[in-house]
Design goal:
Chain A: One of its GO terms (cellular component) is cytoplasm. Chain A: Its main location: cytoplasm. The structure holds two protein chains of two kinds. By secondary structure, chain A is α/β, with parallel strands linked by helices. Chain A has a single domain (3-221), classed as Class I glutamine amidotransferase (GATase) domain (Rossmann fold, 3-Layer(aba) Sandwich). Chain A has helices spanning 14-25, 67-77, 87-94, 151-159, 211-221; strands at 3-7, 30-33, 44-47, 81-85, 101-103, 111-119, 135-142, 146-148, 163-168, 180-184, 190-193. In chain A, strand 10 and strand 11 (190-193) form a beta hairpin. In chain A, helix 1 crosses helix 5 (211-221). In chain B, helix 18 (467-483) packs parallel to helix 21. Chain B is an alpha+beta fold. In chain B, the strands form five sheets. A seven-stranded mixed sheet of chain B has the order 8-10-7-11-9-12-13. The chains are: A alpha/beta, B alpha+beta. At the A-B interface, helix 1 and strand 6 of A face helix 8 and helix 10 of B.
Chain lengths: 222, 744
Amino acid sequence: MKSAVIQLPGLNRDRDMIAALTKISGQAPVTVWQTETELPEVDLIVIPGGFSYGDYLRCGAIAARMPVMKAVAEKAAKGVLVIGVCNGFQILLEAGLLPGALMRNASLKFVCREVKLQVANANTAFTRAYAPGQIIRCPVAHHDGNFFAAPETLARIEGEGQVAFRYAEGTNPNGSINDIAGIVNGAGNVLGLMPHPENLVEAAHGGTDGRALFESVLGRAA
Amino acid sequence: MTIPNDIRITPELVAAHGLKPDEYQRILDLIGREPTFTELGIFSAMWNEHCSYKSSKRWLRTLPTSGPQVIQGPGENAGVVDIGDGQCVVFKMESHNHPSYIEPYQGAATGVGGILRDVFTMGARPIAAMNALRFGAPDHPKTQHLVAGVVAGIGGYGNSFGVPTVGGEVNFDPRYNGNCLVNAFAAGLARTDGIFYSKAEGVGLPVVYLGAKTGRDGVGGATMASAEFDETIEEKRPTVQVGDPFTEKCLLEACLELMATGAVIAIQDMGAAGLTCSAVEMGAKGDLGIELDLDKVPVREERMSAYEMMLSESQERMLMVLRPEKEPEAEEIFRKWGLDFAIVGRTTDDLRFRILHGGEEVANLPIKELGDEAPEYDRPWAEPKMPPALDAATVPAADVADSLLKLLGSPDLSSRRWVWEQYDTLIQGNSLQIPGGDAGVVRVEDHPTKALAFSSDVTPRYCEADSFEGGKQAVAECWRNLTATGADPLAVTDNLNFGNPERPEIMGQFVRAIKGIGEACRALSFPIVSGNVSLYNETLGQAIPPTPTIAGVGLIPDWSKMARIAFAGEGQAILLAGAPESWGTHLGQSAYLRDVHGRAEGAPPPVDLAHEKRVGDFVRGVIRSGTVTAAHDCSDGGLAVALAEMAMASGIGARIDAPVNSASAAFFGEDQGRYVLTAALAREDAQLATLIEDARKAGVSLIAIGVTGGRELKLGEARAISVEELKEAHEGWFPRFMQDGSLQ
């Protein structure tokens, strides 16, 4: 599987993501700097987590306006798989590639802990290696992960099966509406999620529940 | 308004710069004339306690700082220790006490920023952070506000920068009501052939300014941090800097990228006393003069004076000496990261520190003497008064189960989850143990088996009662915590927080603590490779308890054999290593005596360093051989709290024998050098007898005291407590306190 990891100033989980992709796919992703206007031919584009541009102004707002994001949008329109994790999710929202918004956590505090996720739709390109309804462990680490969408948008997301992951077993860490942790776009090729599957992919992490997300993509690409 | 350079130097102005009349006379003698206003500022920046260590230097020299593993001891931005395979760990701890009390969020944030910069300035990528925090009494009106601000500040900076916070401490004591302590630790990983130093080399080379622009924030910060607090504290807010973790993250990446090109000859971050300290350091170390043209310094405010620029403590700035032929390449890297890059001066051969501003020479000082000729004091010190030993017979028996629950839910021993869940503990994907155990553990990237363990320790109430034993104990506990994971303790960094050294009793605490620390470090081959001294932690004559924080680093050769505190399974024998026959004896200065009986009395538990080493070496051995399935040291709250923590971490209960003598001393005594271990053996198993015999031969007492299993912890004759009830007591206090100030 060929993958690309987008790099912007202030992103800081890019190294985690590169390590996870390398370990799981056996191939190091190419990295693409924010000023690039074209992306290489890849099966998967990942926007990792962090604090792009310091999260100043609004999380992901500045990053979404960098040249590389236009290229990401073009690829996404052509059906290339795109994953945005944490700040990457925020950037995808700001870029208009996913519906809804992420607000400050209900606690108003940064939260880093392990939560439980339910695979709400196992029929996406990103979740097919999971069983429908499967409960998995996954860490979160964010300050602004409180997902919100207007009623009609929310109805559409829910109705079309666009919710990929939900916080489960009362572990919603941020107040997200309907316990939403991750969503896909209407076409099903763009995934945004707050939790960090890349931090739970090997024995050293104390578990491998995050692996199947990448393996889902790998299965399609292989 | 611009501050002119020709302000008349009056005795009041000299005093306002924190310089004593005899110190000012020393300046006059040194330069043979009256200093300009900018020069006075430069002297005050270089000669304050914070930067010059004038009260502590004499005693710091007595500390052990070398060993076969030490690549760089104190004197650089951070210490450097070899971990084999061409790799090294670079680390330091530094205080940001004064600013954090004035403005908790920014004070703590910039403390984290400063220590991270110290580490990556040396060419290391930061891989772990810790924070040792001390606050006033929970019922003091400022405490809740300070805890909230400091924790948010640490998280706000560290999380955005992208370093996992894997350990730390939080304590409460009314003696910190007027002065909280924020000691920030950072460690990084580097190649031993890729370490960068601050010593400039070569005449006529460009001095380059990198990073963020210079503003008026933090002017005089180091001088502020070298004085006590009084009623005017609110006026000191402008001396606190403002942090920008985003710029620091960019600065990290740009610096590491630049270092890889071979362009860097010398590098120094701008910390306390900013441009002044960094430029003098680089020049003086390299036996070179430095000339700076302030008109070329990137500024974010208009009409800044030379005085302000030289004393600004704006964050996220670096000074470098670069190879001239690499200049375009270097500039391109910094532009890519959106950072300022400006050639602001050059190295010279005249050993002068010359500052030009607006075409005028505003300062011209001898560069070596600015650092080397700083005053040094042998301050008078007095043997501190020590409380008499506790007569254990005066401590009435209390219910063991109730006492344990009370301790687990006390401000000092309750779970710190509320704090560390606001820190990113997982970023970088290498965290093997996060806060809640004996030490934070991070694996070494690109190595199949190695990991590093980190722990920060000190027990201020021990230091207050006997600063010599307290100093020893801080080192021993740190060594013990690292050992309990199976690590080889490598080296430490110390952060010595005390009151006003001009008072002989405070100086006495300092001197005796240093002696204790030195003795323990020598006995345990645990050298000090970096550190920081914070004095004048005092408000209106009330000093903090002596708080010499010790942060240590250990190496785990194979993390698959690392120990954790959680019970590993049911039906496993529980062993107590290094304990006296009656398990525990020492209640003086114990958490039990204070929190259950309301008495702060007695001498602290003494540390027998030879015993400490013997027990620790044995424990490390049985962890690595795989005999031991869980390990935890006994510290605050003694054996009972250690067992409860092992149960809570696993959800598995335990049944402990009834102690032969006093149950309170056995379960709550804070005797040193003890560990609780478990082995996957039944109590009657012959292998267990062999293990105990092996320990005896090594001069280590190893006593089987119980068995894991079930969902309850039963301590001897005491009523059994469910693990759920333990957790409820343990997890409840902190969130309740932070929610509504509840003290229960």
